[in-house]
From TrEMBL:
<dbReference type="InterPro" id="IPR050563">
    <property type="entry name" value="4-hydroxybenzoyl-CoA_TE"/>
</dbReference>
<protein>
    <recommendedName>
        <fullName>Thioesterase</fullName>
    </recommendedName>
</protein>
<dbReference type="Pfam" id="PF13279">
    <property type="entry name" value="4HBT_2"/>
</dbReference>
<dbReference type="InterPro" id="IPR029069">
    <property type="entry name" value="HotDog_dom_sf"/>
</dbReference>
Length: 142
């Protein structure tokens, strides 16, 4: 299982000021969540088969250091909370520059949606357990 993924920033990630646009941080965090879920056996095809999908209620980004085009960044996923039945969870993604400095944190609160009924549901037990086994979030030293 991988709880961190390394990326190289692209032209499409940049804003007119020459640094990574605000929404690109959220895009990398979302991609890292999909990498993590797939590593647990819950890729897009499995979610479609189960008629289940993750949804977000809140997303908050704190920007600390600029990221520029072509930079290598590493994005991890750390658990903040998960309730007993796994229906609701909170994850913080930390985005690191290649030199190890924290560029940003992206905190999300989510749950699981039944794609047919459009209602919140309890996920499979294995998925809940995988969330519980994520490393715990520790705020970076600034």
């Amino acid at each position: 299982m991988t709880d961190a993924t390394t990326y190289r920033t692209r032209w499409a990630d940049m804003d007119p000021n020459g640094h990574m646009r605000h929404s690109a941080y959220a895009d990398y965090a979302a991609d890292q969540r999909l990498v993590l879920l797939a590593a647990w056996g819950y890729d897009i095809k499995e979610f479609a088969r189960l008629r289940l999908g993750p949804i977000l209620f809140r997303e908050e980004t704190i920007f600390l250091k600029e990221v520029h085009i072509g930079e290598e960044i590493r994005v991890n996923s750390r658990l903040r909370t998960v309730n007993d039945d796994g229906t609701r969870w909170s994850i913080t993604h930390t985005i690191y520059k290649a030199d190890g400095r924290v560029a940003a944190t992206v905190a999300v609160d989510g749950a699981w949606l039944d794609l047919d009924r459009r209602k919140l549901i309890t996920p499979p037990a294995e998925l809940s357990e995988a969330f519980r086994n994520l490393p715990i979030y520790e705020a970076p030293v600034r």
